[in-house]
Amino acid sequence: MAKVRLSSFGLATVLAVACLTACSSSSSSSTSSQACTETGKATMLTVSRASGTTDLATNPEIATGYRSGMTPVRTRTYAVSTANPVSTLAACKVLDAGGTAADALIVAQTVLNLVEPESSGIGGGAFLLYYDANTKQVDAYDGRETAPQSATENYLRWISDTDRREPQPNTRASGRSIGVPGVLRLLELAHHDHGKQPWHDLFDPAINLADNGFAISPRMAEQIAESASSLAADPTARAYFLNADATPKKAGTTITDPALAKTLGAIATDGADAFYHGAIARDIVDTTATTSGGRTPGQITLQDLAAYQAKKRTPVCEPYRGHQICGMPNPSSGGITIGSIMGILSNFDLARLRPTTMDVNGGRPNPEAVHLISEAERLAYADRDKYIADSDFVPLPGNSPQTLLNPDYLKKRAALINPDHSMGTAQPGDLGPVPLAPAPQQPEHGTSHISIVDKYGNAASMTTSIESAFGSFHMVDGFLLNNQLTDFSAQPTAPDGTPIANRVQPGKRPRSSMSPTLVFDDHKNLQLVTGSPGGAVIIQFVVKTLVNLLDWGLDPQQAVSAVDFGAANTPVTGVGGEHPDINATDNGDHDPLVQRLRQLGHQVSVAPQSSGLSALQRDRDGWIGGADPRRDGIVLGDTAG
Fold first, then answer.
1. Fewer CB under 10 Å: which end of the chain, C or N?
2. Catalytic positions, please?
3. What pLDDT does 6 receive?
4. What DSSP element (H or E) covers 519?
5. What is the model's pLDDT at position 519?
6. Quick one: three-class SS letters along 234-282?
7. Average pLDDT rounded to a whole number, residues 12-25
8. For the chain, what is the mean pLDDT?
């Protein structure tokens, strides 16, 4: 495993660029604390890059290494973590100026649209859990994309009933993959409910950055290079991400996005309506319908955009060892599946299975713990794959998440775990005459995550996505359009003709794995804000972090830095080979954890993982935070002066 140093274009440079834009639009910090500072090791970190290539069928986006030796960040009253330091600093300055977590979310998302366009943006969707300290209530906001009203159940399967070819050049890069974007309606609704600063002002940092320019980060540059041929198929994306000779723009290159500055200016002035009506809406419809390069057009209409609504839903909150873990309900499968996994694990004494060794990077997991947690995940994913979809179209068993989360039911599921051998593939539970079939696992990909706590005690956990890296590769008015509809099952029925819950239907929202999570103690006090990008393995990343914190007492940085491991409902168990405590050479044949898992019947993959976890945990009178060393994120806040 090669060790390299970050180039001179490192975090210090990024923060300097960020400060030119973010700091100029916020008030000065107080004299009693250091505002928007970070005390963990952040500059000139050692990065471990695992050998081998990234399998984008199973790994979200590109795997970019590991920043070894990160330490937790302690703050006094507020903290923020995003996947990019430019975005983190901009959002932190909003908190320092007295803004709420809802205000900071808008800044974080719009800046991420520029500095991490491969992962999220206003052309995509999001799920948000928001804790209001005054009401002591948790709101769940659903900004998931929707299928157009004209979509048939074969919309992703073939061009038409008479032309049964796959959409061209493939489903993902065609217009058929594009769903009606939802993130702006979500942000608008959350700001209406919880915002304090004027909507108009919250777009200034991103507009300034788009106009004045910013440097391409190493991660963004690597993803451009990985996706260059697909970006080249769209004239607008080609001009923005590639040089005149079609070579990918490199890290450190300064770029501007005046088209996005204009778009954000309109939204700042006229609200989200400027996006869903008028000129921007027409441009989205036209871009989705393009046939340039032989692409199969999508069918989004102006009516689809005008009718889109973000929805407030009831969060899924389940007990776990003296805590309440709250997650997102469907159409995200994250809250229910994590609740199911943790409910199964509550039947076992995990405390005795702490990591076998401990270090600043989270130590080496106990193989018996990895086995147990992976088996619980297989059982929960089996139920997820069969039963969970958009319940506005396909009701859950018993019309409630509680059917899948019933403690007696989960105790029976736990009894299926053999401590001496992996089950390989689990069967879904028998929950009565539900006329649904398990869907094939869709190759979900990249996202981004934002965790925020403000000085008023409010908190936001938002996972946001345009689906695969650079979405559908369709770029319009300075932003990329998602390919989120590929989260549907392209096959509408099982071989026996039974309908699949997550099939395409008009106006339906595709199932997601996004898992924004809030944890409370038994007195209903907020204790933890966490979440991650990572496609279908988001659930595993968050479960790993929860167990590290709640069962094993790791600090938040250790918890997110620790080895990524887990399983969906396949015989393969992933163990992140990018971690410095894992020996990934020769497919992990020499690593004791991998060896023991294989003895237990697991098919182990040591492919590098690309989680982007963050965790903000209450620590006495303040907060302590950690950011995932596998991406560029950092934690900032008001540290003691």
1. C
2. 447
3. 27
4. strand 517-521
5. 98
6. CHHHHHHHECCCCCECCCCCEECCHHHHHHHHHHHHHCCHHHHCHHHHH
7. 36
8. 90
User: Where does residue 382 rank: exposed (0-12), middle (13-18), buried (19+ CB within 10 A)?
Assistant: buried
pLDDT confidence of residue 441: 61
Contacts of 163 by beta carbon, 8 Å cutoff, 6+ apart: none
In this structure, are residues 476 and 296 in contact, taking their beta carbons and an 8 Å threshold?
no
219 Cβ contact partners less than 8 Å away, ≥ 6 residues apart: 62, 64, 116, 631, 632
Is residue 593 assigned to a domain?
no
Helix, coil or strand: residue 387:
helix
Question: Which residue type does 136 have?
Answer: K
Alpha-carbon distance 180 to 483, whole Å? 10
b/e code 267-278 from CB counts within 10 Å (16+ = b): bbeebbbbbbee
Angle at alpha carbon of residue 441, lines to 438 and 442, rounded to 5°: 130
Total domain count, the chain:
1
Going from the C-alpha of 47 to that of each of 134, 151, 272, the distances in angstroms are: 42, 45, 40
Q: What is the pLDDT of residues 31-56, one digit of tens each?
A: 334 788 654 433 323 333 333 333 33
pTM of the full structure: 0.93
Across residues 519-528, what is the average pLDDT?
96
Q: Quick one: tokens of 303?
A: 């009516």
Name the helix (H) or strand (E) containing 115. Answer: helix 101-115
Angle at 92 between CA 89 and CA 94, to 5 degrees: 120
> Which residues 6+ apart lie within 8 Å of 570 measured at CB?
378, 424, 425, 441
> What number of other Cβ atoms are within 10 A of residue 8's Cβ?
9
Q: Is it the case that residue 240 has pLDDT exceeding 60? A: yes
Residue 140 has pLDDT above 50, yes or no: yes
Selection from 318, 385, 312 nearest residue 543 by Cα: 318
Give the domain range for residue 254: 2-312+443-490+618-640
SS (H, E, C) 400-427: CCHHHHCHHHHHHHHCCCCCCCCCCCCC
Would you say residue 178 has pLDDT above 90? Answer: yes
73 has pLDDT over 80: yes
Q: Residues of the chain with pLDDT > 90: what percent? A: 85
Backbone angles phi, psi at 356, to 5 degrees: -75, -30
Query: 593-621: b or e for each residue (b if 16 or more CB lie within 10 Å)?
Result: bbebbbebebebbbbbbbbbbbbbbbeee
Residue 20 has pLDDT above 60, yes or no: no
Any domain includes 126: yes
Structure confidence by residue, pLDDT tens digits, 394-426: 999 999 999 999 999 999 999 999 999 999 999
Q: Enumerate the β-bridge partners of residue 518.
A: 326, 529
What does the alpha-carbon distance between residue 51 and residue 607 come to, in Å, rounded to a whole number?
9
| DSSP strands (E only) in 323-377 | 323-327
Taking the chain, what is the end-to-end CA distance rounded to the nearest angstrom?
A: 39
Q: What is the mean pLDDT of residues 55-74?
A: 73
Does any domain span residue 227? yes
351 assigned to some structural domain: no
Helix (H, G, I), strand (E, B) or coil at 318: strand
Rounded distance between C-alpha atoms, residue 480 and residue 33, angstroms: 39
